């Protein structure tokens, strides 16, 4: 089964052609990062307009790259939740027109489920059940993937998402947008034990909180400025990163042990973080857990992951129609 998969939830216009949920025939991503960099973050209106301008070309390229015709497509997959509604609607409307014109079924895909499914593309042997840490620009979840279309949230952030915290701290350090990769790189030159930033834990819960550490970093920078002491930005980046990543790893491993699950995956933009990958690799080796993560290109937003997720939704009979809508937020566990 071949799907044409569309992703426009934030600032990437992406279309991919995916076969049987695991084989990527093409994966075109047109990122708007250079456009939004000027504003220090994504401007929703600007994002929607650019999706409209780009989607036709991105779609044509995906078809050409895959060396197929529109006739070869069995169904259309599209991310319709969660995300920026104006952006999502561009993908959803495009998908509906295409489905109507080609007379093909259409499948609505949950963007965060799709981030998890990116692992199926990279690891052909990976099958549910497994545990997944989803860390992206807007979400931080520990999810039990019971089946291809059954997800249970075991813990989540009570305020900011991890990616959001990375981006905000990067802005305080004047590193530019998006901040995650910049902090990742700068931290390599810093001392992770230089500053003791707070780590939030909740009793009897796997939940996270990242707004406190974000304020602590800001306070630290302001205090140093008032004292006229030069801030060592690499030390701040490394210490912040260590504090955040260690809480993520602690809660993930704790839940793996509690549930006696041996297969662990990570997903979402922050799963590209080298410190997270290295730290978890070491812990999983020690704890005899198998760790899966997507290649860097499939961590941040892309169409291939939508096609993988769409395939499994299609097989489960979760087929949508022309009444499909877009949603800003939507529980990953809810159908
Ligand atoms: P969501 O998926 O929750 O809707 P999103 O789609 O905007 O949000 P993603 O595309 O999954 O988010 O990821 C983008 C986020 O990942 C940004 O916050 C970015 O800073 C972060 N990120 C990317 N690379 C890294 C890295 N190497 N280290 C840390 N964070 C990173
Ligand atoms: Mg993005
Ligand atoms: Fe995303």
From TrEMBL:
PROSITE patterns: GLYCOPROTEASE (PS01016)
Gene Ontology MF terms: iron ion binding; peptidase activity; tRNA N(6)-L-threonylcarbamoyladenine synthase activity
Reaction(s) catalysed by this chain's protein: L-threonylcarbamoyladenylate + adenosine(37) in tRNA = N(6)-L-threonylcarbamoyladenosine(37) in tRNA + AMP + H(+)
Binding positions for Fe cation per the UniProt entry: 111, 115, 301
Residue sites binding substrate per the record: 134-138, 167, 180, 184, 273
Keyword Metal-binding: yes
Compartment(s) where it occurs, according to its Swiss-Prot or TrEMBL record: Cytoplasm
Required co-factors: Fe(2+)
Swiss-Prot/TrEMBL GO biological process terms: proteolysis; tRNA threonylcarbamoyladenosine modification
Cofactor binding remark: Binds 1 Fe(2+) ion per subunit.
E.C. no: 2.3.1.234
Sequence ranges assigned to domain Gcp-like in this UniProt record: 24-307
Keywords: Acyltransferase, Cytoplasm, Hydrolase, Iron, Metal-binding, Protease, Transferase, tRNA processing
GO CC term, one of those recorded: cytoplasm
Stored InterPro entries: ATPase_NBD, Gcp-like_dom, KAE1/TsaD, Peptidase_M22_CS, TsaD
Pfam name, any one: TsaD
Family: Belongs to the KAE1 / TsaD family.
PANTHER family documented for this protein: TRNA N6-ADENOSINE THREONYLCARBAMOYLTRANSFERASE (PTHR11735), TRNA N6-ADENOSINE THREONYLCARBAMOYLTRANSFERASE, MITOCHONDRIAL (PTHR11735:SF6)
Function: Required for the formation of a threonylcarbamoyl group on adenosine at position 37 (t(6)A37) in tRNAs that read codons beginning with adenine. Is involved in the transfer of the threonylcarbamoyl moiety of threonylcarbamoyl-AMP (TC-AMP) to the N6 group of A37, together with TsaE and TsaB. TsaD likely plays a direct catalytic role in this reaction.
HAMAP family listed in its UniProt record: TsaD (MF_01445)
Protein's name according to its UniProt entry: tRNA N6-adenosine threonylcarbamoyltransferase
Species this chain originates from: Peptoanaerobacter stomatis
Lineage, highest ranks first: Bacteria, Bacillati, Bacillota, Clostridia, Peptostreptococcales
